Structures are given as C-alpha cells and as structure tokens.
Fold:
Amino acid sequence: MERRKIIHVDMDAFYASVEQRDNPRLRGRPVVVAWRGSRSVVCAASYEARKFGIHSAMPSSRAERLCPEAIFIPPDFHRYRNVSRQVRDILLRHTDRIEPLSLDEAYLDVTENKTGLPTATRVAKVIRQQIREELQLTASAGVAPNKFLAKIASDWKKPDGLFVIQPEEVDEFLLPLPVGRIPGVGKVMQKRLEEVGVRTVGHLRGLELSFLEDRFGRYGVRLYDLARGIDNRPVMTDQPTKSISAEDTFERDMTLDEMEPVVRRLAEKVWAAACKDPRQARTVVLKLKTPEFKILTRSYTLAWPLATCDELARIALRLRERVGLGDRQRFRLAGVGLSNFRGPEEMPEQPALFGA
Structure:
C-alpha cells in the first residue's frame, strides 16, 4: 500500500484575520468576533486578544472582562464564506482530494499532486505562499503520513507555521506528547487515563489492547492505534458534516434541573463550531446517559435557521421536558448537538421562535 502524504491546512484566527485585513485600523489590536451580550459567545479572537486568555466559544461577557479594550466585531459569515471559497480555489490547484472540516481548515491528500511538485512539504509551502500573496492572510500547515498526525502538526508552529512529521520521525515526535494532545481526549478522558498511570502517548502505548478495550470500549481500540501513529482514515472528498455535537461526563451524577449550566456551556461549544459551517442545521438534539449507561436522545426540528446561541440553548433545555423519567432521575452525561444541515438556499425565512 502506497504511503499517504497528507496536509492539514488551518487558517490562522480566520474570522478575526479577515476583519484585520479588511480594516487597517484593527491590525495589531485585540479583535474579538462576537455579538455583545450576556448570552453571546466568541466566534474568533485575534492573536492579540488571545494573549489575554480569550478563545472561541468563551462567553462574550467574560471576554470583555479579560480584555476591556478589546474591539468587538459582529460576525459577517457571508464574507467569511467568500474568503473560504477563495482559499479552496487555491487548494484545488494542487489536488482534488480535499476534505473541508470547516470554513477555515481542510485535509488534503497530495500523495499525487496536480502541479508536479516533488514533495508534500513543497506543496504545503507553495499553498501557504499563495494564500499570503493572493489573499493577504496566513495559514499554518502540518504535513504527515496520516490525518491524525497532520492535524497535530498544523498546530505545532501556529500562527503562520509549517511543521513536517516524516514517517521515520513519528515515534520520536509522538511518544513524549501529553496524552491530552490526542483528538477526543478531553479533560474527563484525560483524568481517567491518568488514573491508570497514563500521562504521555508513550505511557499509553505501553497498555495492552485488551485492557484499553475493556476499559474504554471502542474508543480504547482507537487509542491503541493512535498511540502507534496509526490512522487509516482516507481524505473524504466533499463529505458534508452530518452533525456537530459536544458532550460532558459529570464528576457526579446530576438531575435534569441541575444540568442547566452544563447544557448552556455545551450549546456554546456547538454554536461556535456550527458558525464555521456554511450550511445551517435544522435539528437540535439533547443526549443523556444514565448511571446504568442507558442512552436517551430527544430532538426538535425547526422550520427555520437558528439565529443565536441562546436560541440553541433554550431549545436544548426545553427538550429536557420530553425525557419523562421523573425529577429524581440522575444522569452521568449530557450532550448537545445539531444535525439535518441544509444550504442557505434550502432554508425559509425565519419567523418568531415557537412559544415561550
């Protein structure tokens, strides 16, 4: 089997960088792309704003407290989509095998490239140069034998960086990494891994497949492969996202009433991710898991696009009323998701939200 050459291209602080490019007065300033208000969340932050601890999905009110001098710009997704199409046009000069992840990042399979460049590293350099010269924006890129490693590599020298992981360098790079750098290993999973002595990818590699599968199920098998730098997923050309979701496993089981802050926080994460997709979701999903690991889902399909993060949170919270297991029932996990994505041309005009 031919060894793949994968590039992960990630635009640097994309929304904020577009705003700074188009308005010279914003350059070098802490820019936050977000609506103001107690229920709004940050869509993007310039690197000047990130120095204050501001990041995507953070409540706008907290961002204001962290950096009172920050300049808040309402997002203009129509403009960002246009720029994203321009970036994609540049990528298409080099390969047709492109898997967009959002408006600002994509995987490319350049095992064979259209321009005859001799290496994937050279392709990545030319792509970054063309984005800089033609769009006056910067992109970071990671080059590696698979998607998992390329994704980590693109973040290694951000912003405006290029990092290459050669096949013979995988172990040297991967083994010392904190296990939290593995996609899908959030705070809860990281804590569970630390309980069995795993703090680095090297520690993880020392565990048997049977142990990981017994302890973590199907994801344990995935961890076993990733600890060895194995990721056989192909670049999926033009495969639209079917759903966007976020979930949280609680440190202690919660009732439905107790989990309102958690649901709102998850809604913020999902909304920030959904803002990067050119399409709009019609279905809101609430996922719950009982202490006995029984999974329940409740959903609501709208006839119009969601307008705000607060709308998403309100609908997710309303879905708790459909659970029907009683006020005393407790849950170990909650998740919020969006699905049933449609293009803007498929969505009707928005009426008032259903009754309060």
